[in-house]
Design goal:
Blueprint lengths: L1 H36 L7 H10 L6 H19 L2 H10 L3 H12 L3 H26 L9 H4 L6 H18 L6 H11 L2 H12 L3 H28 L10 H50 L3 E7 L4 E6 L6 H9 L10 E6 L1 H51 L3 H11 L3 E12 L4 E11 L6 H16 L5 E3 L9 E4 L4
Parallel strand pairs: 2-3, 5-6
Antiparallel strand pairs: 1-2, 4-5, 4-7
Helix pairs in contact: 2-5, 3-4, 3-6, 3-10, 5-6, 5-11, 5-12, 6-10, 8-9, 8-11, 10-11, 11-12
């Protein structure tokens, strides 16, 4: 029993030890995470407030810096130069009044809020005027990709503004200002290009560009101000105190109301952009599946989120009516319920393209047939040339027997009869063809052997046949040619 009690006590002791070690570990992890992520340490509240207030006002040099930065950004947009646009964003003082709005609401500073709103309005007015004047010059009114990209904000712009705003106020609140972070936020949040694009829209009377760009600027400004407000509250920045309690209460109510309006409007904007982005993605997926299944020659697409409309422009292979009705019914499956599908396709153009394809197919077939005939003709030409060479060889071997016999008679009066044949011989290892002349002489001719030798030499030279033989009697019963002297 005592052993069992001792064992239980040891187990309890071990459990307590493990529990203590576990608590120490959790405490260490918690301490590490606090040291890693806590932004309260190192915050200089008074200096941060002063830096933000100093950057609010626009006058003299600040105004001219803003004007020149707007012109630089406009030139960058016109030439589609990202580097130039980035440079303009780095020198722009636009961020100051926006941070002032967020700060003033967070610390109930109504005077700073008024000053921030006035200066923000002045900066926006100067920016729109400067870009309007620049883009009023006809030479600079081209719609470049950099301009077009600033007219359609989506949910990602909201996320950039939120994260950029948090990074900016954290960097500003340090004892030692993190300038690289501030510069990076100025580039990422991109306040300048939307204002330049809005000025372009006014100069070219393209109000869809104007409203789209101003919407993007508003989103960035609201969410930067909102994140500034949230960080000021989180870091417990000191509130502005008013001697008059009624005034303090009224200002607090105004600041709370403005903050609530900004927060509610920002949520509304975020939700609207999120739904729009989702709708556009669903429409793009739907269009791609439709293209793959119908083989339609879609050359342009337009997705209108406001009117729930998907518009397709088709050229070439049209979508048939049965297919069109089927794909209209499939729209809810792709998250496009209560949407309309609008298709523009030219029937005459489609027929013309079909005829062109038919002509093209016929041309290809004709070319293949011509190529086949050319190949047949080439084969026949090759065969003809081979036969001609064979015939030439035969002609070269042919003996002009009539002429030879007459010439031989002139040269040798004693010839009575001459015959010719090709004698085929074999020794059972090879076969030879020997041209042979058979001759008969008149009995009155003396020295026939000499005459026969001369005749042989002459025939060999005349016919260029070294193998030619001359015999004085016919050994073959079927000579090919025979010449006999006729009786006079």
């Amino acid at each position: 029993m005592e052993n069992k009690e001792n064992l239980d006590e040891n187990l309890e002791g071990q459990k307590e030890g493990i529990k203590q070690n576990y608590n120490v570990f959790l405490s260490s992890v918690r301490t590490f995470l606090i040291d890693l992520l806590d932004i309260r340490e190192g915050t200089d509240q008074k200096e941060t407030i002063q830096k933000i207030k100093d950057g609010i006002q626009v006058k003299s040099h600040t105004a001219w810096i803003l004007i020149f930065s707007i012109l630089v950004a406009s030139i960058g947009l016109n030439t589609s130069s990202t580097a130039v646009v980035i440079g303009a964003m780095l020198i722009s003082p636009l961020m100051g009044p926006i941070l002032g709005v967020g700060l003033s609401i967070g610390i109930n500073d109504i005077d700073t809020l008024k000053r921030s709103m006035v200066n923000l309005g002045v900066m926006v007015g100067l920016s729109l005027t400067s870009s309007f004047i620049f883009f009023s010059i006809p030479l600079f009114q081209e719609e470049t990709p950099e301009i077009i990209s600033r007219t359609q904000p989506d949910v990602r712009d909201v996320l950039i503004a939120i994260t950029g705003g948090f990074a900016l106020i954290i960097a500003l609140s340090r004892h030692k200002e993190i300038t690289t972070t501030i510069a990076g936020v100025a580039i990422a949040t991109a306040l300048m290009p939307p204002l330049c694009t809005a000025g372009y829209g006014l100069a070219t009377w393209n109000f869809s560009f104007f409203w789209g760009a101003m919407f993007l600027f508003t989103i960035n400004a609201i969410f930067i101000a909102l994140t500034t407000f949230m960080l000021v509250k989180f870091l417990n920045f000191p509130m502005v105190r008013y001697i008059n309690s009624v005034k303090r209460k009224r200002i607090s109510q105004i600041a709370s109301t403005v903050a609530l309006i900004i927060f509610g409007f920002s949520i509304y904007l975020f939700y609207g952009l999120f739904k729009k982005n989702q709708y556009v993605q669903n429409a793009e997926k739907y269009i791609e599946v439709l293209r793959q299944n119908t083989g339609a020659g879609i050359i342009k697409t337009e997705v209108d989120f406001a009117n729930r409309n998907v518009k397709l422009i088709v050229l070439g292979h049209n979508i048939k009516k049965k297919e069109l009705d089927l794909w209209k019914k499939k729209m809810p499956e792709y998250g496009l319920s209560q949407s309309t599908l609008e298709i523009h396709q030219d029937e005459e153009t489609s027929k013309l393209l079909d005829e062109i394809n038919t002509i093209k197919s016929s041309y290809v077939k004709n070319q293949e047939l011509i190529a086949s005939k050319e190949e047949t003709i080439l084969q026949k030409d090759t065969k003809i040339r081979a036969l001609e060479r064979s015939l030439e060889k035969i002609k070269q071997r042919e003996i002009p027997f009539i002429n030879i016999s007459r010439e031989a008679k002139i040269n040798h009066d004693g010839l009575k009869e001459i015959s010719f044949s090709n004698l085929i011989t074999t020794n059972f290892s090879k076969i030879d063809t020997i041209p042979v002349f058979y001759v008969k002489w008149h009995d009155s001719i003396p020295n026939k052997t000499k005459q026969e030798t001369q005749l042989k030499k002459w025939l060999q030279l005349r016919l260029r046949l070294d193998t030619l033989q001359v015999l004085n009697e016919i050994k073959s019963k079927e000579p090919t040619f025979k010449y006999q002297e006729s009786a006079e």
